[in-house]
Amino acid sequence: MGRIRPIAIATLLALLGASGLVAAAKVYRWTDSNGVTHYGDRPPAGATSAKPGAAAPKVQRVRIPPESQPISAMRVENEGSRHLVWADNKLAGPIEVRLRFERSRNITSEPALPARATVPASGSALVAVLTIAEAGGGGEFRLQMDSLPGTPSARPKDVEYQAPLRQRSVRIDQGYGGEFSHTDPQNLHAVDFAASVGTPVLAARDGVVMQVASDYDKSGLSRERYAGRANFIRIAHDDGTMALYAHLKSDGVLVRVGQRVRAGQQIGLSGNTGYTTGPHLHFVVQVNRGMRLESMPFRMRGPAGPLKITRPR
Length: 313
Prior knowledge:
This protein has one helix at residues 223-226, and strands at residues 4-14, 26-31, 37-40, 59-63, 72-78, 82-89, 95-105, 107-110, 115-119, 124-132, 139-149, 160-162, 172-174, 191-194, 200-202, 207-213, 219-220, 231-236, 242-253, 260-261, 266-270, 274-275, 280-288, 293-295, 299-302, 305-306. It is mainly β and 313 residues long. The protein folds into 2 domains: 4-21 and 67-149, Sandwich (Immunoglobulin-like); 160-300, Glucose Permease (Domain IIA) (Distorted Sandwich). One of its GO terms (molecular function) is metalloendopeptidase activity.
């Protein structure tokens, strides 16, 4: 029986666009009294030293850019005559993946590639099984997997969202179809609320924190340099839709991935990070329409009643 040789495995980051990226991890570095450098996802308890009476070690935060962290991982299990290709979801909400051959020789796939699969929150899904096409010969393959937040089976409900800012009045600086940055499908129905840096950001609807980024501290008008480099919170709703709260201040995320939140609960602090003209909160409701994110219009109630949001012409 021929042998399958995987040449390489490539996993792409999420196809998210300007306001969405993967969660930024927190990594800490410190050196103990013995001169040993440690790394961890949290600082040492009380920053205690390895030797009694010694000075507490200095703990440094190591910032890892969100774009370096994938929302999914491809895993290939070798079962002798066949290879099982799995997708592992790194988010606390569903994702969709698309698997395809970059290159293959004498390999057959079930189902045929390209193939798509929906992966549950923090779970795994078998995407394809690869085998030799013609017995007696060897085979080889190279795979690529794309991933996108959300499930294509979402069924949006007509709900009224709460204003996402804790302030007495609401001002919209850019509405639906705004020429500056609300022109692509995933931001067409976005709303930019005026908000000074540090304004409390509230959950507009009940949901589960799916994805966050909080390590960015810069902003500017260079789309190439700053698009996609905004701090954000993505919250998954029970109907499959997702709300994105973007341009938060550095370390302005006050919730953790996987946390369930209620409408009106404070989740972050507004800021001025990423591709912006000034401090504000970018809010958008998105849905996965089959490996593409689309924004959708929504109803929202402000402090003085229902908000009037300009629709694209």
